[in-house]
Amino acid sequence: MFDVLAHPIREKIIRVLGELGSLTYSELREKVGVEETGKFNYHLNKIFPFIEKKGKLYSLNEEGYKLYNFLRLKEELGVKYIGVVEPIRLSRIGIAFCQCHGEASKFLNLEELSLELSKSENIAAVEIFGNICSPENIQMVKKWVKKNLLDGLIIVGCSPEVHKGLSDFLSTVDIPYEVVNVLEGCIRVNRSSLKEAFEKVRCMINGAVQAVNFKPKSSKKSVHIPKSVAVIGGI
Q: Could you report the per-residue pLDDT of 134-168, keeping only the tens digit for each?
C-alpha cells in the first residue's frame, strides 16, 4: 500500500476512480492530468492490484475502495505523512435509518435528522434505507458498512425481534452495534406530537452513539458440541 502512496500520480488515479467510478483509459488519463502515455502506464501498472479492467473500463476493486477510503480518512484527519505508528482505533460510526415500510418516514423528517447527525464528530456515514429487514437491503447495508470502513453501527428502525431478516443480519455483524427501536418506542406512542417524537428520537440515537463508542469489538468463537448434548436457547 505504501508503494502506491509513494507518488502523487498513483494516489490521484485511486482518488479519480473512487470519485467517478468506471472510466476508459483515455478518460482516466485526462482526469488524472498526465499527457505522457509511458509515464501514465508506468504508474497505472504500479497500482494494478487495486484496480480491475472490464472491457475498456477501469475501476477500483474491493482492495482499491479500501485504499480510497483510507485516503479520504487521511484527508479528513489532516495527515500529511504516513509512517509506521501504533494502531489507533477510530470511532467511525455509521447510522442506518430504516423507513419501516414508510411508517418512520411518514412521521419523522429523516432527511433533516440525517443531515444533523452527519455533522457529528464521530459519525462517518448516515444513510436512509427502504426496509432494512428485506434481503436486498440487508446486502446493501453490508456493502455500505464495508465501503465506509465503519467500526460501529447504529440501526434506527424497529426491533430485531419483530423481523427475522434483521435479527439474522445482526448475528453476522462483527462490529459494535445498537438498534434504536423508534417505531415501537417512540413513533407509535407520540403520534400526537411530532416535535416531541423528533426530540425523543434524537436523544435515543445520541444514547446509542455513546453506547457503541464504549462497546468492545465482538469476537466469534467456535465451540465443539458433543452429539449427546442438547442446546436450548442462547445469549
A: 778 788 888 888 888 888 888 888 777 666 667 77
State how far the Cα of 225 lies from the Cα of 228, in Å rounded to an integer: 8
* Cα distance between residue 177 and residue 209, in whole Å: 9
| Residue the block writes with cell 403520534 | 191
Within a domain: 222: no
For residue 66, what is its C-alpha cell? 479500501
Indicate the angle between helix axes 37-46 and 8-20, nearest 10 degrees: 80
> What residues are paired with 177 via a beta bridge?
153
201, 182 Cβ separation under 8 angstroms: yes
Residue 63 sits in which domain range? 4-77
Specify the residue for cell string 494494478.
Answer: 48
How is residue 227 written as a grid cell?
A: 452429539
Residue where the block lists cell 447510522: 95
Query: How many angstroms separate the CA atoms of 150 and 147, rounded?
Result: 8
Q: How many domains does one find in the chain?
A: 2
